[in-house]
Design brief:
This protein is α/β, with parallel strands linked by helices and 375 residues long. The protein has 15 helices and 11 strands. The chain is globular. The protein starts with a helix and ends in a 5-residue tail after the last helix.
């Protein structure tokens, strides 16, 4: 390798060997060959003695490109060779954490490698998200995303990353409605009664969310705007801590995932007033939608997916998406997701990218219309 590089350096340094038909730009481009180990020895020898022309420059660059593509293919085929980390940018116990563990376990079994769930809560999800934005694009550090990922551009315009430029969408994992719940001490048994209570006590009722910029936050901002009520937002570092304070009576109202609240709803420790989706949730058919109960047109969904750092090879992205898709299609995972109050989704990277763009547009309009801001 040392001899080959030295020979090519001599050829490039000796401008007398560069033929007249090679432009200055092409001569500069040829320097990129120095970093490519796949150039045949006989081609290097020819260049060193006869100079560089367009034909041989194209051959050399094509050789480098083919080597890079074959390297990506090989990496995708042997991936993973060590444990993979799923960064969940929220606390344990929330929907993102629960879904990540369910999918991670099955992927780990398929891959024969451990999938580590690494919770990096804080900063409305930005701490964990920035960590992945700066990670190596090799598939071993992936980010579990939810609507907060699409809300960030409008609510946090100075975030230390760009959700559309710094990440590569891989696959949407699932989606689910959320549920409006209150502590039993709150004197409201229906959505209309909660609205009436809030109107009677403007600015006196608090509502919890899993964090600023989450659907629990923005979904409730939509609720406030449509119901014309004034309530105070109290953000938490994930659904787990929010539900814990709800159970303790420290806070009275919240919009949280079905998965993080359904056990306590069934036990009577929390009272469900309505689900956020357009249609009733199959696992809670006795609970009306917020739309039918009081606010026609109200409709928000929680969703989850995987993204990778930018520059992650397409072959690797497609490999992970395909594996996740096979898991989502299994009867076992469908049953597991339904038990979590969700349904599995397995979209292609392209469809997931388009979905994220639509979500950025939708939530951006809501942020502007509601006047929501980062607390």
């Amino acid at each position: 390798m040392v001899e080959r590089t030295a020979t090519l350096k001599e050829a490039l340094a000796n401008t007398s060997t560069v033929r007249p038909e090679v432009s200055k730009g092409e001569h500069f481009l040829s320097a990129s060959i120095l970093s490519c180990p796949s150039i045949p020895q006989d081609l290097l020898l020819y260049i060193s003695t006869n100079g560089i022309n367009q034909s041989f420059l194209k051959i050399a660059l094509a050789s480098c490109a083919l080597a890079a593509m074959s390297g990506h293919d090989a990496h995708a085929q042997t991936f993973p060779a060590r444990p993979v980390r799923f960064i969940v940018p929220f606390a344990t116990g929330g929907a993102s954490d629960i879904v990540a563990r369910a999918v991670g376990q099955k992927l780990g079994e398929m891959w024969g490698q451990t999938v580590v769930i690494d919770n990096r809560a804080g900063g409305s999800g930005m701490i964990g998200t920035e960590l992945v934005a700066r990670a190596a694009p090799d598939g071993y550090v992936l980010l579990v995303v939810e609507p907060t990922f699409a809300i960030t551009p409008s609510l946090f315009p100075k975030a230390p990353f760009d959700v559309q430029k710094d990440f590569v969408p891989i696959v949407q994992i699932g989606q689910a409605p959320q549920v409006l719940v209150v502590h039993p001490s709150v004197p409201a048994k229906t959505v209309k009664e909660l609205i009436a209570l809030a109107k009677a006590k403007p600015g006196q009722l608090n509502f919890a969310s899993p964090g600023t910029g989450t659907t629990g936050h923005l979904g409730f901002e939509m609720f406030k705007m449509m119901a014309k009520v004034d309530m105070v937002h109290i953000p938490y570092k994930g659904a787990g801590p929010a539900v814990a304070d709800l159970l303790g009576g420290q806070i009275g109202v919240a919009v949280v995932s079905v998965s993080s609240a359904q056990t306590n709803i069934k036990a009577g420790r929390l009272r469900a007033l309505g689900v956020t989706s357009e249609k009733r949730f199959s696992g809670m058919l006795d609970i009306p939608t917020i739309a039918e109960a009081a606010l026609p047109g109200f409709d928000t969904l929680q969703w989850w997916g995987l993204v990778a750092p930018r520059a992650t090879p397409a072959e690797l992205v497609n490999r992970i998406a395909a594996d996740a898709g096979r898991i989502a299609a299994s009867a076992e995972m469908q049953e597991r997701m339904l038990s979590l109050g969700a349904e599995p989704v397995a979209s292609s990277p392209e469809r997931f990218a388009a979905f994220i763009r639509d979500e950025i547009d939708k939530w951006g309009k809501l942020v502007r219309a509601s006047g929501a801001r980062a607390d």
